């Protein structure tokens, strides 16, 4: 965010590429594996719930910390480094893996054709593009960044509640085989 709008956009494009990769994998393979091995999906579900609890704890701890946030100076020497950073962040993000696995395993019917799956990939990609490019444009503005930093405790508290609620919903949800 601190390097400017162009670097933020390249980071967003990297994240979007990661989303496309996970979406395609889930749509055309991972979902089938998870549907045929419900035990694997159940284990991923519980691991995801534990990860969300961990994020909730970290967010709550951050919200209760009175010191200012540590804004690290990220060294991005080129747009390609920024793109690769976004790509690697998303490809290694457990939330992304769980989201795409759940989306195609639960929300897409088993009767979906390859064209239907491709339509879901396109729609999810369009929504993701709007969100991540919007973040890049919004947070590359110094005033917005400063407001976010000043309001850190409020945002972190909301994130803690969101992650905690999502975790408990996952733990207590019943997966239909």
Structure characterization notes:
It comes from Gallaecimonas xiamenensis 3-C-1. This protein is mainly α. The protein is built from seven helices and no strands. Helix 2 packs across helix 4 and helix 2 packs antiparallel against helix 7 (152-172).
Describe this protein with a few key phrases:
177 residues; mainly alpha; 80% helix; 0% strand; globular; membrane
In the residues, how many domains can be counted?
1
Classify the beta-strand content into a percent band.
Answer: under 5%
Stretches with pLDDT under 50, minimum 5 residues: none
What is the overall pLDDT average?
82
- Biggest sheet statistics: none
User: How large is the radius of gyration?
Assistant: 18 Å
Number of helices: 7
Order of helices and strands: HHHHHHH
Q: What's the number of extended β-strand segments?
A: 0
- Could you estimate the helical fraction of the residues in percent? over 70%
Topology:
Blueprint: H1 5-36, H2 38-64, H3 79-91, H4 94-107, H5 114-139, H6 142-150, H7 152-172
Helix pairs in contact: 1-3, 1-4, 1-5, 2-4, 2-7
Quick structural summary:
The chain is mostly helical.
């Amino acid at each position: 965010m601190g390097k400017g709008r162009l670097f933020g956009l390249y980071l967003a494009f990297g994240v979007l590429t990661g989303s496309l990769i996970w979406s395609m994998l889930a749509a055309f393979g991972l979902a089938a594996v998870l549907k045929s091995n419900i035990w694997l999906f159940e284990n991923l579900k519980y691991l995801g719930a534990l990860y969300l609890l961990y994020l909730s704890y970290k967010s709550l701890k951050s919200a209760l910390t009175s010191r200012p946030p540590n804004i690290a100076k990220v060294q991005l020497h080129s747009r390609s480094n920024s793109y690769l950073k976004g790509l690697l962040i998303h490809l290694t993000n457990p939330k992304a893996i769980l989201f795409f696995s759940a989306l195609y395993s639960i929300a897409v019917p088993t009767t979906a054709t390859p064209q239907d799956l491709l339509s879901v990939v396109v729609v999810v990609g369009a929504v993701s593009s709007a969100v991540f490019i919007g973040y890049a444009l919004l947070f590359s503005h110094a005033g917005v960044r400063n407001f976010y930093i000043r309001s850190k405790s409020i945002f972190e508290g909301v994130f803690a509640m969101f992650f905690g609620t999502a975790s408990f919903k996952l733990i207590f949800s019943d997966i239909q085989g």
